[in-house]
Amino acid sequence: MKRLLSIELQKIWQNRASRILTLTYFILLSSVALIASINFNFVGLDFRMADMGIFNFPFIWHFNTYMASILKFFLAVIIVSMMANEYSYGTLKQNLIDGLSKKEFILSKFFTVFLFAILSCIYVFIMTLILGYSFSSYTESAIVFSDLEYLLAYFIKLVAFFSFCLFLGILIKRSAFAIGFLFLWYVVEGIIGGLLRITIFSSSEQVDKIKAFFPLESMANLIKEPVTRFQAYKAIENQVSGASAPKDYSVHLTEIAIVLVWTVIFMLMSYKILKKRDL
After folding, report:
1. Of 184, 167, 268, 261, nearest to 219 (Cα)?
2. Would residue 147 be called left, alpha or beta, if left means φ above 0 and alpha means ψ between -120 and 50 degrees?
3. pLDDT tens digits, one per residue of 100-115
4. Three-class secondary structure of residue 224 per DSSP
């Protein structure tokens, strides 16, 4: 594992664009902290987000992991480019000539994906603790370390998404086309959901149950949007439209299982494509 991982990290670090994107990703993750110091003016009222309870434990685990997951596209570009460069520079063929098997090659990519997800989770964990202890009104250990399932969901979401990107990189070979296909897949899932709503199901809840098995939709379902869970938002919503039905923001084992199945599928498909392809 160490040998395979060192090979991949060396390739990434020697690529200037990959270095810049990686550093940009972690810098942008840190920018979440800037929200704490920004003063907003709304309807003549000045307020600071940190004073509104947005960094209170345990809500901050949900908020930070959701915001961090939005930035995963920076690392997605690295994953796709990492695979595309193997074909462009001929390093894939050279690695196989040097004795690396196709199975070991795929494992080296998966280990890299796993490492990116681990490092991102550690970074978010540390950043969340710093922000939480700096601004949260609740610092009891029982409260601080509750809702850590969002961090687990964030990790699984990253591994699955990066595995999908790796699969696209192997399938399409060209980074620009692979990234374009990724965004096209988002659109396709939305279109299929719309067609199901119009032609087959009359209830949006039924459509949502079907869409929960789509790859990108299942990943998105791991961490629901946190804004409507925010107490200040609920207070405004209740004043404007009255009390609404409670929403489930929890991380469910069934959702985790679906995403893990897709992760296995993407890795197996990547291996099968590589195994059959004439290099």
Report:
1. 261
2. left
3. 888 888 888 899 899 9
4. coil
